[in-house]
Every structure is written in C-alpha cells, then in structure tokens.
Design brief:
This protein is of the alpha/beta class. The chain has 2 domains: 3-126, Vaccinia Virus protein VP39 (Rossmann fold), CATH 3.40.50.150; 133-382, no CATH class. The chain has 16 helices and 12 strands. It has a 7-stranded mixed sheet, sandwiched between helices. The chain has a 3-stranded parallel sheet with strand order 1-2-3. Strands 9-10 form a two-stranded antiparallel sheet. The longest helix is centred in the N-terminal third of the chain and has 30 residues, at 3-32. It is globular and about 75 Å long. Bound molecules: zinc ion. Zinc ion binds at residues 314-315, 317, 367, 373, 375-376.
Amino acid sequence: MGPDRQSEELQELTQQTRAIWDRNARFWDAAVGEGNLVQSTLIGPACERLLAVQPNMTILDVACGNGVFSRRLARLGAQVVACDFSETFLECARARNTRFKLLASDCLWYKSHFLLNEAGMLESQIECHALSRAVLTEQLHALGVEAGGVLLVHMSFRATRPIEGGPLGLIEALRGVLGATGTLVMPSWSGEDDEPFDPLTTPAAPSLGIVADLFWRLPGVLRSNHFHAFAAIGPEAAWITSDPLPLPPHIPESPVGRVHDLNGQVLLLGVGHDANTTLHLAEILAGVPYRLPTYCTVLQDGRPVRIDYEENDHCCERFAFADEWLRARGLQSEGRVGHAHARLARARDIVGVALKHLAGDPLLFLHPPSAGCVECDEARRSTGA
Ligand SMILES: [Zn+2]
C-alpha cells in the first residue's frame, strides 16, 4: 500500500469515526456527565497524579469529549486548552459552562493527524518551551530540596527535558539550590561486569542516563574508585565516595549508606522507587534472605581479576510500595521538576518505612510466585523457600 492510499484510508477512517462520535456525543454526555464511577475514581485521579497538576500549568486535552476531565484540571488551577474532532461534543462542552479554552474541531483534526503520523511533532507542540533556570530553581525549592544538604539524585532526563542549558543546565540548577555547602550525588557505576573499572575513563552505565554520565566528568566532581561507583561534588563528596568496593553494592559502608548517615535527601526525577538504590540498603539492614550470584572485574597488579559475590537483587518493581508508605506518613514531597514528576524523601525515612514493613515480611519486595516474574522467582529460590 502506497503512502497516498494509506493517507486516503486514514482520512476516511477519521471521517467515519467523527460521524460515529457526532451521533453518540449527546448520549455519552447525558450518561457520563460530570463523571461516572470509573471516570471519577479510577481514570481522573490517576491522570491527575501522573500529570502532577499545579496552578498555572498549561495542559492540552486532546479528544476532550464533553470536557469532563478538562473541567477537573481547570478546577485544580491548570490553564486548559481542549479540543475534539466531534463538533457535537464541543457543543456539549460549551453547554456545561466550560471555563477552559476550546479549540475549533478542524484544528483538532489537523493535530490528531499529526498524532497519528508524526507523534514527535505533536509532542513538540505541547512541550514547546525549555524551562528556564529560574523556573527549575523555583520547582526544586517548592519540592523541598534543602540548601546545604546532601542530595542523591536518580533521574530520567528524557522525562525532565526540555530545560534551558540541557543536562548541564539541570546539574547547575541542582547545585545552585544546594549552594556551596550542599553536596550533590549521582549513581555512576558502569554495569560492565567483565571490564575493570577506571574512575577516570569508564563511562557510566547507559541506563543511568546522560546526566549521570556527564556529571562525573565535570571539574571538581569526585567518583568512587570501584565498580559500584557513585559521583559527588560538595563538602561531603570525599566521605561519600571514599569507601572501598562494597559487596554487595549498597551496604552501610557505601555511597548510599553514607548519604543515609548524613541524613541526605533522595530525589527521584522522572523515575519511580524502582530506581531507588536506598531501598537496597534497607533490604540489607533488614537482613532479607535472598542473594543472587553475580560478579565484577577489578585490576590486581595490572591484571583483570574476576570477583564473585552475591547481591540482594530482583526486578525492583515492588519498591513502588514505598510511595504509599511515605505518602501515608507525609514523608514524601511530590511535584514537577522540569517537565517530570519528582519525588523527594529523606534517605532515613525511606529506610525507616521499608524496615518497618520488611520486619513483617522479609520477602515483601519479591513478586509472588503467581506473578511469573523470573527475577523475583530466582531471588525467592535463593532463600530455599
Ligand atoms: Zn519481580
């Protein structure tokens, strides 16, 4: 099928779909109105959480229907621009005294066309501006990042961008908020089991992202001299990065252990608790019984030597429990940093809530056997259970 034929079919499909929604819109509007049970208890709250709606945020609601969700967002203070390709739906939205701005249906058709064909173009229309250093600084202050404190950051730059100055701009904003007496810490391990680690040349693991790999290369940043490296800058950087190779990687005498000792904060920027290594420290302090064999390679007298060890590892998905534990106690601050959802909590609070729950069930972080998770099953087997 040639591109012209494809485009013709797509237009035809769009017209058909629009006609169907024009027919159904009033029925849908009467039935759902300001939200049925699914809308108001499941979809709405989950979307609001994901968006981390803040006053004066601008949100484009594509395919707004009768505007039920746009009105929720507007009530939370967002500036909402909404559009739908069904003119009848737009009439329903207007009839409900809509206070958000409605775009004409043709405009939506044009945009939905982009969405189908060139998703990146629609994305760039929504997130069209790079956030300035001033806005970023304000966001970090609002979240509760402490001047003069120790801050361990795990992040996805993809989720955070675009921001002024790119990855370096983000690092500078973080350092600016911490000030001269604060210490910034990021993971910096290589993840290459077979390669000896050299803190001066070994790249950070690709999974840690572009910011982590830029950070250790910056002037004044210290990096652990071992495979499970973290990098840090500031008054506590030397203490945090100076322990010898920790086995397993997140024992108390390791960078995350030192951040915990120093009552540091942990910032999860565009990532969840599954990226939160401080929870591995909690597992060790709780004495969880699972250990998986793994290895790394170090240089001894100039020769690569393999070191075998056991690590408390699994898929880490169930680290997400920490969200509920911390939220329930008011110990986690959440909001927007850059364009990403951010979580901030003290390392000691993260460890504290995890210890409390692991005391009741040391296998809590492992998926149950019925979930079919290969990694968690392997961890479970290592306990002899
Ligand atoms: Zn699992």
